[in-house]
Amino acid sequence: MTNLTVGNAHITYRAEGSGPALVLVHGVGPGAAMWDALVGRFTDRRTVVLPDLAGSDPVEDDGSPLTVEALAAQLIAVIEDTGAAPVNLLGFSMGAPVAAAAAALRPDLVRRLMPVAGFAHGGDRYLRQLVDAWFALTGEPGGFGRLGTLTAYSPAFLNTMAPEAIEQLHGFMQPTDGRLRQLDLLRRLDIRDLLPKIEAPTLVVGCTQDRTVPVENHREVAAAIAGSEYTELDSGHVVMMERPDEFVDLVRDFFDRP
Questions:
Q1: Phi, psi (5° rounding) for residue 144?
Q2: Contact 90/22 with Cβ under 8 angstroms?
Q3: Residue 23 is part of which domain span?
Q4: Distance (Å, rounded) from C-alpha 102 to C-alpha 125?
């Protein structure tokens, strides 16, 4: 584990494997641990870099409101510290606009970019209502976690799971201070002015059954990045859990291109 101080935050990152760097940027939640189930499927030919950005459980900061600019600066600092630039960069959910902002601000650091289930701004009324509902449940951790589970996965996927496995999922989303600050950021961020500045070859991945960030937002991101490619997977928001094989194949194929 490597520690860095960036602005008001003491962030961490870890690297596993060997070969060209693949940086995986987490969404709202406890941090880079969300990628643990998939890391081993990339480390055979890549160094997987896993940053924990502000608001995630391992990070200490001053508790001020998060900004996409601050998170992008933390991500840029991690990429620079690895000495592996230009890197392949993948951001999921909240991590998608953070990764896109970093690619726009520092094109020299990014070889290829893949925003997954992301969005360009916090104006989507459905997303804002969902975040408001989470804040209304701040004092009820059980309800907070259940709402996170309901919106993270498609109904079809949940119906394949055992009831006890579903109950375990509720622990991923809890109303910690960091989680609430990340959710607040979802309502405020806006990278529409940065998207046209992205130079790296980009593949935007949408999820047709996304009940956290509606798929129209994924399509909007693709439309704003000149020359980008766009593909959709038949999945809820957490596509790497619902469609792990398809997701891994997509990631490997895109980042293996010359």
A1: -60, -50
A2: yes
A3: 2-122+190-255
A4: 26
Low-confidence residues in the chain, pLDDT < 70 = none
Cα separations in angstroms, 88 against 39, 64, 114: 14, 30, 8
Question: Per the domain annotation, does 47 fall within a domain?
Answer: yes
Residue pLDDT, tens place only, 160-175: 999 999 999 998 899 9
SS3 assignment, position 56: coil
The single residue listed with the structure tokens 């940027």 is 25
Residue whose C-alpha is closest to residue 24's, from 42, 10, 4 = 42
Q: Provide the CATH number for the domain around residue 47.
A: 3.40.50.1820
Cα–Cα distance measured from residue 194 to residue 225, given in angstroms and rounded to the nearest whole number:
9
Q: Which tokens belong to 147?
A: 């709402």
Please list the active-site residues: 93, 210, 237
Give the angle 145-67-14 at the CA atoms, nearest 5°. Answer: 70
Task: Give the HSE-up count for residue 182: Cα atoms under 13 Å, Cβ half-sphere.
Answer: 26
Q: Nearest-CA neighbor of 40 among 213, 222, 240?
A: 240
Rounded to two decimals, what is the model's pTM?
Answer: 0.97
Structure tokens at 136: 């209304």
